[in-house]
Protein backbone atom coordinates (compact mmCIF):
# COMPACT_ATOMS: atom_id res chain seq x y z
CA UNK A 1 0.00 0.00 0.00
CA UNK A 2 1.47 3.34 -1.06
CA UNK A 3 0.51 6.39 1.02
CA UNK A 4 -0.73 9.53 -0.69
CA UNK A 5 1.53 12.48 -1.34
CA UNK A 6 1.29 15.74 -3.26
CA UNK A 7 3.82 17.66 -5.34
CA UNK A 8 5.06 19.58 -2.27
CA UNK A 9 5.79 16.32 -0.50
CA UNK A 10 7.67 14.93 -3.51
CA UNK A 11 9.78 18.09 -3.90
CA UNK A 12 10.17 18.27 -0.11
CA UNK A 13 11.60 14.75 -0.03
CA UNK A 14 14.76 15.96 -1.77
CA UNK A 15 15.42 18.76 0.76
CA UNK A 16 18.78 18.21 2.47
CA UNK A 17 19.53 15.04 0.49
CA UNK A 18 22.84 14.10 -1.12
CA UNK A 19 22.35 12.25 -4.37
CA UNK A 20 24.86 10.41 -6.52
CA UNK A 21 23.81 10.40 -10.16
CA UNK A 22 25.41 8.52 -13.04
CA UNK A 23 24.58 9.29 -16.66
CA UNK A 24 24.05 13.02 -16.09
CA UNK A 25 25.70 13.95 -19.39
CA UNK A 26 23.05 11.85 -21.17
CA UNK A 27 19.56 12.93 -22.21
CA UNK A 28 17.55 11.60 -19.28
CA UNK A 29 20.24 12.47 -16.73
CA UNK A 30 20.10 16.16 -17.65
CA UNK A 31 16.33 16.24 -17.34
CA UNK A 32 16.64 14.73 -13.85
CA UNK A 33 19.43 17.03 -12.64
CA UNK A 34 17.58 20.11 -13.89
CA UNK A 35 14.30 19.09 -12.31
CA UNK A 36 15.76 18.35 -8.88
CA UNK A 37 17.63 21.68 -8.83
CA UNK A 38 14.54 23.58 -10.03
CA UNK A 39 11.96 22.09 -7.67
CA UNK A 40 14.22 21.71 -4.63
CA UNK A 41 16.91 24.39 -4.35
CA UNK A 42 17.57 23.12 -0.82
CA UNK A 43 18.82 19.75 -2.02
CA UNK A 44 22.13 19.26 -0.22
CA UNK A 45 24.37 18.08 -3.05
CA UNK A 46 24.19 16.38 -6.42
CA UNK A 47 27.31 14.29 -6.99
CA UNK A 48 27.59 13.71 -10.73
CA UNK A 49 29.82 10.79 -11.68
CA UNK A 50 31.34 11.73 -15.02
CA UNK A 51 33.78 9.89 -17.25
CA UNK A 52 36.75 12.23 -17.26
CA UNK A 53 40.53 12.23 -16.80
CA UNK A 54 40.31 14.25 -13.59
CA UNK A 55 38.11 16.53 -11.56
CA UNK A 56 38.86 19.60 -13.71
CA UNK A 57 37.81 17.84 -16.86
CA UNK A 58 34.72 16.41 -15.08
CA UNK A 59 33.86 20.01 -14.09
CA UNK A 60 34.33 21.15 -17.64
CA UNK A 61 32.05 18.39 -18.93
CA UNK A 62 29.36 19.38 -16.45
CA UNK A 63 29.57 23.05 -17.45
CA UNK A 64 29.46 22.36 -21.16
CA UNK A 65 27.40 19.16 -21.43
CA UNK A 66 24.99 19.46 -18.51
CA UNK A 67 24.30 22.85 -16.93
CA UNK A 68 25.34 24.71 -20.08
CA UNK A 69 22.58 23.15 -22.20
CA UNK A 70 19.29 24.81 -23.29
CA UNK A 71 17.30 22.72 -20.85
CA UNK A 72 18.81 24.74 -17.97
CA UNK A 73 17.50 28.02 -19.41
CA UNK A 74 14.51 28.26 -17.06
CA UNK A 75 16.71 27.57 -14.04
CA UNK A 76 19.22 30.16 -15.27
CA UNK A 77 16.47 32.75 -15.52
CA UNK A 78 15.23 31.83 -12.05
CA UNK A 79 18.65 32.37 -10.45
CA UNK A 80 19.88 35.18 -12.72
CA UNK A 81 23.42 36.27 -11.82
CA UNK A 82 23.53 33.75 -8.99
CA UNK A 83 23.15 30.77 -11.32
CA UNK A 84 26.86 29.84 -11.43
CA UNK A 85 27.20 30.17 -7.64
CA UNK A 86 24.08 28.07 -7.16
CA UNK A 87 25.44 25.33 -9.42
CA UNK A 88 28.82 25.44 -7.73
CA UNK A 89 27.21 25.11 -4.33
CA UNK A 90 24.88 22.26 -5.27
CA UNK A 91 26.66 20.27 -7.97
CA UNK A 92 29.83 18.31 -7.33
CA UNK A 93 31.37 16.65 -10.41
CA UNK A 94 33.28 13.43 -9.71
CA UNK A 95 35.65 11.86 -12.23
CA UNK A 96 34.71 8.20 -12.30
CA UNK A 97 33.50 5.31 -14.38
CA UNK A 98 31.01 2.60 -13.45
CA UNK A 99 32.93 -0.07 -15.34
CA UNK A 100 35.47 -0.06 -12.50
CA UNK A 101 35.12 -1.51 -9.05
CA UNK A 102 34.52 1.37 -6.61
CA UNK A 103 33.41 3.39 -9.65
CA UNK A 104 37.03 4.38 -10.29
CA UNK A 105 37.02 6.62 -7.20
CA UNK A 106 39.94 6.81 -4.77
CA UNK A 107 39.67 5.47 -1.24
CA UNK A 108 39.26 8.86 0.44
CA UNK A 109 36.47 9.98 -1.91
CA UNK A 110 34.75 6.63 -1.60
CA UNK A 111 34.78 6.77 2.19
CA UNK A 112 33.50 10.36 2.20
CA UNK A 113 30.68 9.50 -0.20
CA UNK A 114 29.69 6.31 1.55
CA UNK A 115 29.06 8.32 4.72
CA UNK A 116 27.03 11.06 3.08
CA UNK A 117 24.99 9.72 0.16
CA UNK A 118 21.22 9.34 0.67
CA UNK A 119 20.16 8.27 -2.81
CA UNK A 120 21.91 6.74 -5.82
CA UNK A 121 20.46 7.06 -9.30
CA UNK A 122 22.13 4.85 -11.88
CA UNK A 123 21.18 6.19 -15.29
CA UNK A 124 24.50 5.44 -16.99
CA UNK A 125 24.36 2.93 -19.79
CA UNK A 126 25.44 2.27 -23.28
CA UNK A 127 22.22 2.40 -25.30
CA UNK A 128 23.61 1.31 -28.66
CA UNK A 129 21.73 -1.80 -29.89
CA UNK A 130 24.83 -3.02 -31.73
CA UNK A 131 27.44 -2.15 -29.11
CA UNK A 132 30.61 -4.19 -28.66
CA UNK A 133 29.80 -7.00 -26.25
CA UNK A 134 32.72 -6.18 -23.95
CA UNK A 135 31.72 -2.49 -23.72
CA UNK A 136 28.02 -3.20 -23.17
CA UNK A 137 28.81 -5.91 -20.63
CA UNK A 138 31.25 -3.70 -18.70
CA UNK A 139 28.76 -0.81 -18.58
CA UNK A 140 25.31 -2.35 -18.35
CA UNK A 141 26.16 -5.50 -16.37
CA UNK A 142 29.36 -4.89 -14.38
CA UNK A 143 28.39 -1.23 -14.01
CA UNK A 144 25.15 -2.22 -12.28
CA UNK A 145 27.11 -4.64 -10.07
CA UNK A 146 29.65 -1.99 -9.07
CA UNK A 147 26.91 0.50 -8.29
CA UNK A 148 25.14 -2.08 -6.13
CA UNK A 149 28.35 -2.94 -4.26
CA UNK A 150 28.99 0.73 -3.62
CA UNK A 151 25.38 1.28 -2.53
CA UNK A 152 25.74 -1.45 0.07
CA UNK A 153 28.67 0.44 1.60
CA UNK A 154 26.66 3.65 2.01
CA UNK A 155 25.45 3.57 5.60
CA UNK A 156 22.69 6.17 5.34
CA UNK A 157 21.47 5.18 1.87
CA UNK A 158 17.69 5.38 1.47
CA UNK A 159 17.58 3.71 -1.91
CA UNK A 160 19.18 2.87 -5.23
CA UNK A 161 17.16 3.77 -8.29
CA UNK A 162 18.32 2.01 -11.44
CA UNK A 163 17.11 3.00 -14.89
CA UNK A 164 16.56 0.00 -17.10
CA UNK A 165 14.34 -0.38 -20.18
CA UNK A 166 10.92 -1.93 -20.76
CA UNK A 167 12.46 -3.78 -23.72
CA UNK A 168 14.32 -6.16 -21.42
CA UNK A 169 11.15 -8.10 -22.29
CA UNK A 170 12.68 -8.80 -25.72
CA UNK A 171 10.18 -9.54 -28.46
CA UNK A 172 7.52 -11.18 -26.30
CA UNK A 173 3.91 -10.61 -27.27
CA UNK A 174 0.82 -9.91 -25.18
CA UNK A 175 0.73 -8.25 -21.77
CA UNK A 176 4.22 -7.97 -20.28
CA UNK A 177 4.26 -7.76 -16.49
CA UNK A 178 6.42 -5.59 -14.23
CA UNK A 179 8.22 -8.57 -12.84
CA UNK A 180 11.86 -8.98 -11.84
CA UNK A 181 14.29 -11.29 -13.62
CA UNK A 182 15.71 -14.21 -11.73
CA UNK A 183 19.44 -14.79 -12.05
CA UNK A 184 20.10 -16.94 -15.12
CA UNK A 185 16.60 -16.50 -16.56
CA UNK A 186 16.39 -16.23 -20.34
CA UNK A 187 13.71 -15.54 -22.91
CA UNK A 188 14.23 -18.91 -24.60
CA UNK A 189 12.77 -21.98 -23.06
CA UNK A 190 15.26 -24.56 -21.87
CA UNK A 191 18.26 -22.23 -22.09
CA UNK A 192 20.07 -21.08 -18.95
CA UNK A 193 22.30 -18.04 -18.76
CA UNK A 194 25.47 -17.98 -16.68
CA UNK A 195 26.66 -14.38 -16.39
CA UNK A 196 30.10 -15.42 -15.14
CA UNK A 197 30.56 -17.59 -18.26
CA UNK A 198 29.63 -14.62 -20.44
CA UNK A 199 32.40 -12.61 -18.81
CA UNK A 200 34.85 -15.48 -19.40
CA UNK A 201 33.75 -15.72 -23.02
CA UNK A 202 34.40 -12.01 -23.53
CA UNK A 203 37.85 -12.28 -21.95
CA UNK A 204 38.73 -15.37 -23.99
CA UNK A 205 37.59 -13.69 -27.21
CA UNK A 206 39.67 -10.62 -26.40
CA UNK A 207 42.74 -12.80 -25.76
CA UNK A 208 42.19 -14.68 -29.00
CA UNK A 209 41.89 -11.47 -30.99
CA UNK A 210 45.05 -10.08 -29.38
CA UNK A 211 47.00 -13.31 -29.91
CA UNK A 212 46.14 -13.24 -33.60
CA UNK A 213 47.22 -9.58 -33.86
CA UNK A 214 43.97 -8.63 -35.51
CA UNK A 215 43.41 -4.96 -36.29
CA UNK A 216 41.25 -2.71 -34.13
CA UNK A 217 38.57 -2.89 -36.82
CA UNK A 218 38.48 -6.67 -36.69
CA UNK A 219 38.38 -6.61 -32.89
CA UNK A 220 35.47 -4.16 -32.93
CA UNK A 221 33.51 -6.21 -35.45
CA UNK A 222 34.22 -9.46 -33.61
CA UNK A 223 33.00 -7.97 -30.33
CA UNK A 224 29.89 -6.45 -31.92
CA UNK A 225 28.97 -9.71 -33.59
CA UNK A 226 29.62 -11.67 -30.41
CA UNK A 227 27.15 -9.44 -28.53
CA UNK A 228 24.40 -9.95 -31.08
CA UNK A 229 25.05 -13.68 -31.27
CA UNK A 230 24.90 -14.13 -27.49
CA UNK A 231 21.81 -11.92 -27.18
CA UNK A 232 19.96 -13.93 -29.83
CA UNK A 233 21.11 -17.21 -28.36
CA UNK A 234 19.29 -16.35 -25.13
CA UNK A 235 16.23 -14.81 -26.81
CA UNK A 236 16.96 -11.06 -26.77
CA UNK A 237 17.01 -9.11 -30.05
CA UNK A 238 20.17 -7.06 -29.41
CA UNK A 239 23.18 -6.54 -27.16
CA UNK A 240 21.73 -3.47 -25.45
CA UNK A 241 18.56 -5.04 -24.04
CA UNK A 242 20.33 -8.32 -23.30
CA UNK A 243 22.97 -6.61 -21.16
CA UNK A 244 20.35 -4.38 -19.49
CA UNK A 245 18.44 -7.54 -18.52
CA UNK A 246 21.61 -9.07 -17.06
CA UNK A 247 22.21 -5.83 -15.13
CA UNK A 248 18.75 -6.16 -13.57
CA UNK A 249 19.42 -9.80 -12.71
CA UNK A 250 22.61 -8.93 -10.85
CA UNK A 251 20.94 -6.11 -8.94
CA UNK A 252 18.11 -8.38 -7.82
CA UNK A 253 20.56 -11.09 -6.84
CA UNK A 254 23.12 -8.96 -4.99
CA UNK A 255 20.95 -6.37 -3.29
CA UNK A 256 20.28 -8.20 -0.01
CA UNK A 257 17.90 -5.86 1.82
CA UNK A 258 18.99 -2.77 -0.10
CA UNK A 259 15.94 -0.77 -1.23
CA UNK A 260 15.95 -0.85 -5.03
CA UNK A 261 13.63 0.74 -7.56
CA UNK A 262 13.98 -0.31 -11.18
CA UNK A 263 12.42 2.09 -13.66
CA UNK A 264 11.75 0.60 -17.07
CA UNK A 265 10.79 3.28 -19.60
CA UNK A 266 9.88 2.40 -23.18
CA UNK A 267 11.05 4.75 -25.97
CA UNK A 268 11.79 8.09 -24.34
CA UNK A 269 10.79 11.09 -26.43
CA UNK A 270 11.18 14.86 -26.11
CA UNK A 271 10.02 16.94 -23.16
CA UNK A 272 6.24 17.35 -23.12
CA UNK A 273 5.80 20.13 -20.55
CA UNK A 274 8.68 21.21 -18.37
CA UNK A 275 11.01 22.95 -18.60
CA UNK A 276 11.35 23.17 -22.39
CA UNK A 277 8.74 21.40 -24.55
CA UNK A 278 10.29 19.56 -27.51
CA UNK A 279 13.81 19.55 -26.05
CA UNK A 280 15.77 16.38 -26.51
CA UNK A 281 19.20 14.98 -27.24
CA UNK A 282 20.43 11.83 -28.95
CA UNK A 283 18.79 10.14 -31.90
CA UNK A 284 16.50 7.27 -30.85
CA UNK A 285 14.58 4.63 -32.77
CA UNK A 286 11.64 6.65 -34.05
CA UNK A 287 13.68 9.83 -34.45
CA UNK A 288 16.00 8.27 -37.02
CA UNK A 289 12.91 7.84 -39.21
CA UNK A 290 11.75 11.42 -38.64
CA UNK A 291 15.23 12.75 -39.44
CA UNK A 292 15.59 10.41 -42.43
CA UNK A 293 12.34 11.74 -43.86
CA UNK A 294 13.12 15.38 -42.97
CA UNK A 295 16.37 15.05 -44.90
CA UNK A 296 14.57 13.15 -47.66
CA UNK A 297 17.11 10.38 -47.28
CA UNK A 298 14.42 7.83 -46.37
CA UNK A 299 11.07 7.20 -47.92
CA UNK A 300 10.63 3.47 -47.32
CA UNK A 301 9.95 2.24 -43.83
CA UNK A 302 9.70 -1.13 -42.17
CA UNK A 303 6.79 -0.64 -39.81
CA UNK A 304 3.28 -1.92 -39.25
CA UNK A 305 1.19 1.24 -38.86
CA UNK A 306 -1.46 -0.58 -36.81
CA UNK A 307 1.04 -1.66 -34.16
CA UNK A 308 1.60 0.40 -31.05
CA UNK A 309 4.86 2.32 -30.62
CA UNK A 310 5.34 2.65 -26.92
CA UNK A 311 6.65 6.15 -26.28
CA UNK A 312 6.88 8.28 -23.18
CA UNK A 313 8.07 11.90 -22.90
CA UNK A 314 11.34 12.40 -20.96
CA UNK A 315 9.83 14.71 -18.32
CA UNK A 316 7.23 12.06 -17.46
CA UNK A 317 9.98 9.48 -16.94
CA UNK A 318 11.82 11.83 -14.59
CA UNK A 319 8.61 12.64 -12.71
CA UNK A 320 7.94 8.92 -12.22
CA UNK A 321 11.52 8.47 -10.97
CA UNK A 322 11.20 11.29 -8.44
CA UNK A 323 7.83 10.11 -7.13
CA UNK A 324 9.19 6.55 -6.84
CA UNK A 325 12.19 7.83 -4.85
CA UNK A 326 9.94 9.70 -2.44
CA UNK A 327 7.60 6.74 -2.04
CA UNK A 328 10.17 3.97 -1.65
CA UNK A 329 12.67 5.69 0.61
CA UNK A 330 14.03 3.08 3.06
CA UNK A 331 11.62 0.47 1.75
CA UNK A 332 13.71 -2.72 1.76
CA UNK A 333 11.99 -4.21 -1.26
CA UNK A 334 12.75 -4.28 -4.98
CA UNK A 335 10.08 -2.38 -6.92
CA UNK A 336 9.71 -2.40 -10.67
CA UNK A 337 7.89 0.24 -12.70
CA UNK A 338 7.05 0.24 -16.38
CA UNK A 339 6.99 3.88 -17.41
CA UNK A 340 5.23 3.17 -20.67
CA UNK A 341 2.09 4.11 -22.56
CA UNK A 342 0.89 1.08 -24.55
CA UNK A 343 -1.67 -0.05 -21.99
CA UNK A 344 -3.18 3.27 -20.84
CA UNK A 345 -2.99 5.38 -23.98
CA UNK A 346 -1.72 3.37 -26.95
CA UNK A 347 -0.27 5.37 -29.84
CA UNK A 348 -0.18 3.43 -33.11
CA UNK A 349 2.63 4.18 -35.55
CA UNK A 350 -0.09 5.59 -37.83
CA UNK A 351 -0.37 8.61 -35.48
CA UNK A 352 3.29 9.44 -35.93
CA UNK A 353 3.05 8.99 -39.70
CA UNK A 354 -0.10 11.17 -39.98
CA UNK A 355 1.21 13.94 -37.77
CA UNK A 356 4.65 13.73 -39.42
CA UNK A 357 3.13 13.83 -42.90
CA UNK A 358 1.10 16.92 -41.96
CA UNK A 359 4.01 18.58 -40.20
CA UNK A 360 6.35 18.25 -43.18
CA UNK A 361 3.61 19.28 -45.61
CA UNK A 362 3.12 22.51 -43.63
CA UNK A 363 6.82 22.93 -42.86
CA UNK A 364 8.67 21.42 -45.82
CA UNK A 365 12.38 20.90 -45.32
CA UNK A 366 14.54 23.18 -47.45
CA UNK A 367 17.21 22.15 -49.90
CA UNK A 368 20.75 22.76 -48.67
CA UNK A 369 21.74 23.82 -52.19
CA UNK A 370 19.30 26.63 -52.93
CA UNK A 371 17.24 27.01 -49.73
CA UNK A 372 14.04 26.17 -51.64
CA UNK A 373 11.44 23.83 -50.06
CA UNK A 374 12.07 20.29 -51.32
CA UNK A 375 9.41 18.12 -52.97
CA UNK A 376 8.53 15.44 -50.45
CA UNK A 377 8.65 11.87 -51.63
CA UNK A 378 5.78 9.51 -50.96
CA UNK A 379 6.29 7.29 -47.91
CA UNK A 380 6.09 3.53 -48.42
CA UNK A 381 5.56 1.11 -45.58
CA UNK A 382 6.32 -2.58 -45.26
CA UNK A 383 4.55 -4.53 -42.57
CA UNK A 384 6.91 -7.48 -42.42
CA UNK A 385 10.63 -8.06 -42.69
CA UNK A 386 10.28 -10.60 -45.56
CA UNK A 387 8.28 -8.05 -47.63
CA UNK A 388 10.84 -5.37 -46.89
CA UNK A 389 13.68 -7.73 -47.84
CA UNK A 390 11.89 -8.71 -51.08
CA UNK A 391 11.39 -5.05 -52.06
CA UNK A 392 15.02 -4.23 -51.28
CA UNK A 393 16.20 -7.24 -53.29
CA UNK A 394 14.26 -6.25 -56.41
CA UNK A 395 14.81 -2.52 -56.15
CA UNK A 396 18.45 -2.44 -55.03
CA UNK A 397 20.08 -5.88 -54.68
CA UNK A 398 19.35 -6.89 -58.26
CA UNK A 399 20.66 -3.66 -59.89
CA UNK A 400 23.68 -3.98 -57.60
CA UNK A 401 24.31 -7.48 -58.89
CA UNK A 402 24.11 -6.20 -62.48
CA UNK A 403 26.57 -3.44 -61.60
CA UNK A 404 28.90 -6.04 -60.08
CA UNK A 405 28.90 -8.12 -63.29
CA UNK A 406 29.34 -5.01 -65.41
CA UNK A 407 32.23 -4.01 -63.22
CA UNK A 408 33.93 -7.37 -63.80
CA UNK A 409 33.32 -7.15 -67.56
CA UNK A 410 34.75 -3.62 -67.66
CA UNK A 411 37.84 -4.47 -65.60
CA UNK A 412 36.80 -2.66 -62.45
CA UNK A 413 35.53 0.57 -64.04
CA UNK A 414 32.74 0.81 -61.45
CA UNK A 415 34.62 -0.54 -58.46
CA UNK A 416 34.24 2.58 -56.34
CA UNK A 417 30.60 3.11 -57.17
CA UNK A 418 29.83 -0.56 -56.60
CA UNK A 419 31.67 -0.51 -53.24
CA UNK A 420 29.78 2.59 -52.10
CA UNK A 421 26.36 1.32 -53.12
CA UNK A 422 26.81 -2.14 -51.64
CA UNK A 423 28.00 -0.63 -48.34
CA UNK A 424 24.86 1.57 -48.28
CA UNK A 425 22.67 -1.42 -49.08
CA UNK A 426 24.24 -3.52 -46.32
CA UNK A 427 23.86 -0.64 -43.87
CA UNK A 428 20.15 -0.14 -44.62
CA UNK A 429 19.49 -3.88 -44.27
CA UNK A 430 21.45 -4.02 -41.01
CA UNK A 431 19.54 -1.06 -39.53
CA UNK A 432 16.22 -2.56 -40.64
CA UNK A 433 17.05 -5.88 -38.97
CA UNK A 434 18.12 -4.11 -35.76
CA UNK A 435 15.03 -1.89 -35.56
CA UNK A 436 12.54 -4.53 -36.72
CA UNK A 437 11.87 -5.81 -33.18
CA UNK A 438 10.62 -2.30 -32.24
CA UNK A 439 8.87 -1.36 -35.47
CA UNK A 440 7.03 -4.69 -35.38
CA UNK A 441 6.68 -5.04 -31.60
CA UNK A 442 3.52 -6.84 -30.52
CA UNK A 443 3.83 -6.64 -26.75
CA UNK A 444 1.96 -4.35 -24.39
CA UNK A 445 3.58 -3.26 -21.14
CA UNK A 446 1.47 -3.76 -18.08
CA UNK A 447 1.89 -0.82 -15.72
CA UNK A 448 -0.20 -1.79 -12.72
CA UNK A 449 2.61 -0.85 -10.30
CA UNK A 450 3.09 2.49 -12.03
CA UNK A 451 -0.64 3.12 -11.96
CA UNK A 452 -0.53 2.60 -8.17
CA UNK A 453 2.30 5.11 -7.96
CA UNK A 454 0.26 7.57 -10.04
CA UNK A 455 -2.74 7.06 -7.78
CA UNK A 456 -0.57 7.93 -4.78
CA UNK A 457 0.19 11.33 -6.28
CA UNK A 458 -2.51 13.82 -5.36
CA UNK A 459 -2.66 16.34 -8.18
CA UNK A 460 -3.91 19.84 -7.58
CA UNK A 461 -3.91 21.61 -10.95
CA UNK A 462 -4.27 25.10 -9.50
CA UNK A 463 -1.43 24.63 -7.02
CA UNK A 464 0.78 23.05 -9.68
CA UNK A 465 0.14 26.00 -11.97
CA UNK A 466 1.20 28.50 -9.35
CA UNK A 467 4.26 26.38 -8.43
CA UNK A 468 5.27 26.18 -12.10
CA UNK A 469 5.89 22.45 -11.97
CA UNK A 470 4.21 19.14 -11.35
CA UNK A 471 5.14 15.47 -11.16
CA UNK A 472 2.55 14.08 -13.53
CA UNK A 473 3.36 10.95 -15.52
CA UNK A 474 0.01 9.80 -16.80
CA UNK A 475 0.19 8.91 -20.51
CA UNK A 476 -3.61 9.30 -20.65
CA UNK A 477 -3.07 13.04 -20.37
CA UNK A 478 -1.22 13.11 -23.71
CA UNK A 479 -2.94 13.80 -27.03
CA UNK A 480 -0.36 11.97 -29.16
CA UNK A 481 -1.28 13.59 -32.45
CA UNK A 482 -0.93 17.04 -30.97
CA UNK A 483 2.25 16.07 -29.12
CA UNK A 484 3.94 14.76 -32.27
CA UNK A 485 2.73 17.57 -34.51
CA UNK A 486 3.35 20.51 -32.17
CA UNK A 487 6.05 19.34 -29.79
CA UNK A 488 8.09 16.28 -30.68
CA UNK A 489 8.63 16.60 -34.44
CA UNK A 490 9.44 20.34 -34.23
CA UNK A 491 11.80 19.39 -31.37
CA UNK A 492 13.54 16.74 -33.48
CA UNK A 493 13.90 19.24 -36.34
CA UNK A 494 15.19 21.96 -34.01
CA UNK A 495 17.51 19.97 -31.75
CA UNK A 496 18.58 16.93 -33.74
CA UNK A 497 18.48 17.73 -37.43
CA UNK A 498 21.71 19.69 -37.99
N1 LIG B 1 16.61 7.03 -24.36
C1 LIG B 1 15.69 6.09 -24.37
O1 LIG B 1 14.80 6.05 -25.24
C2 LIG B 1 15.67 5.07 -23.25
C3 LIG B 1 14.59 4.19 -23.19
C4 LIG B 1 14.53 3.27 -22.15
C5 LIG B 1 15.52 3.25 -21.19
N2 LIG B 1 16.57 4.11 -21.27
C6 LIG B 1 17.58 4.06 -20.22
O2 LIG B 1 17.67 5.35 -19.64
C7 LIG B 1 19.01 5.60 -19.21
C8 LIG B 1 19.46 6.92 -19.78
O3 LIG B 1 19.37 6.85 -21.19
P1 LIG B 1 19.77 8.08 -22.12
O4 LIG B 1 18.98 7.97 -23.34
O5 LIG B 1 19.77 9.32 -21.33
O6 LIG B 1 21.27 7.66 -22.47
P2 LIG B 1 22.42 8.51 -23.14
O7 LIG B 1 21.92 9.83 -23.58
O8 LIG B 1 23.06 7.61 -24.15
O9 LIG B 1 23.43 8.73 -21.94
C9 LIG B 1 24.13 7.68 -21.36
C10 LIG B 1 24.85 8.23 -20.18
O10 LIG B 1 25.58 7.17 -19.53
C11 LIG B 1 26.91 7.60 -19.33
N3 LIG B 1 27.82 6.48 -19.29
C12 LIG B 1 27.98 5.53 -20.25
N4 LIG B 1 28.93 4.68 -19.86
C13 LIG B 1 29.37 5.09 -18.64
C14 LIG B 1 30.33 4.62 -17.73
N5 LIG B 1 31.07 3.54 -18.00
N6 LIG B 1 30.52 5.27 -16.54
C15 LIG B 1 29.80 6.38 -16.28
N7 LIG B 1 28.87 6.89 -17.11
C16 LIG B 1 28.67 6.25 -18.27
C17 LIG B 1 27.19 8.51 -20.51
O11 LIG B 1 28.34 9.27 -20.25
P3 LIG B 1 29.27 9.84 -21.41
O12 LIG B 1 28.72 11.20 -21.71
O13 LIG B 1 30.60 9.87 -20.80
O14 LIG B 1 29.18 8.92 -22.59
C18 LIG B 1 25.90 9.30 -20.53
O15 LIG B 1 25.90 10.26 -19.52
C19 LIG B 1 19.83 4.40 -19.66
O16 LIG B 1 20.00 3.56 -18.56
C20 LIG B 1 18.98 3.74 -20.71
O17 LIG B 1 19.20 2.34 -20.75
C21 LIG B 1 16.67 5.04 -22.29
Number of domains: 2
Bound molecules: NADP nicotinamide-adenine-dinucleotide phosphate
Report the span from N to C terminus: 48 Å
CATH architecture of the largest domain, by name, is 3-Layer(aba) Sandwich
Helix tally? 18
Q: Kindly state the number of beta strands.
A: 15
Can you tell me the overall shape?
globular
Structural class comes to alpha/beta
Question: What do the pLDDT scores average to?
Answer: 95
CATH superfamily of the largest domain: NAD(P)-binding Rossmann-like Domain
The portion of residues assigned to helices is 40-55%
Evaluate the radius of gyration: 24 Å
The CATH topology name of the largest domain reads Rossmann fold
What summary fits the major beta sheet? 7 strands, parallel
Q: In CATH's first tier, which class of the largest domain applies?
A: Alpha Beta
Low-confidence stretches: none
Trace the largest sheet across and list its strands. Answer: 4-3-2-5-6-8-12
Sheet-strand content, in percent, reads 5-15%
GO molecular function: alcohol-forming long-chain fatty acyl-CoA reductase activity; alcohol-forming very long-chain fatty acyl-CoA reductase activity
InterPro entries: FAR (IPR026055), FAR_C (IPR033640), FAR_NAD-bd (IPR013120), NAD(P)-bd_dom_sf (IPR036291)
Pfam families: NAD_binding_4 (PF07993), Sterile (PF03015)
Keywords: Lipid biosynthesis, Lipid metabolism, NADP, Oxidoreductase
Please describe the topology of this protein:
Blueprint: E1 5-6, H1 7-13, E2 18-22, H2 27-39, E3 45-50, H3 55-65, H4 73-79, H5 83-90, E4 91-95, H6 107-116, E5 119-122, H7 133-153, E6 159-163, E7 174-176, H8 195-211, H9 216-233, H10 239-254, E8 260-265, E9 267-269, H11 285-294, E10 300-302, E11 311-313, H12 314-328, E12 334-339, H13 349-362, E13 380-382, H14 385-409, H15 415-439, E14 443-445, H16 448-456, E15 457-458, H17 461-467, H18 480-496
Parallel strand pairs: 1-15, 2-3, 2-5, 3-4, 5-6, 6-8, 7-14, 8-12, 9-11, 10-13
The protein binds NADP nicotinamide-adenine-dinucleotide phosphate (NAP).
Amino acid sequence: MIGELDADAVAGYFRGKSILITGSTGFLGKVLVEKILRVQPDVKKLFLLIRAAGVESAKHRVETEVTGREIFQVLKEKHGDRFDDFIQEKVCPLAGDIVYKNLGLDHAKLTELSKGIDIIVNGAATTNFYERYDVAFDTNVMGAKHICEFAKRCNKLKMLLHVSTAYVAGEQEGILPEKPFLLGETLREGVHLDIESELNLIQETRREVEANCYSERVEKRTMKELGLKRAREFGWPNTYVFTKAMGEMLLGHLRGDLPIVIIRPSIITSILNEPLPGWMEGIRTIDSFIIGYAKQALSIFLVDLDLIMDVVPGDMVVNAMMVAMAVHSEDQAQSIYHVTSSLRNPAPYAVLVDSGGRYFLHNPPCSKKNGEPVRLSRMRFFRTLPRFRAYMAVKFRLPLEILRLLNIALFGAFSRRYGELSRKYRYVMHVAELYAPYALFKGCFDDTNTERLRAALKANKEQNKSRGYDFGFDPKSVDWDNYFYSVHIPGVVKYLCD
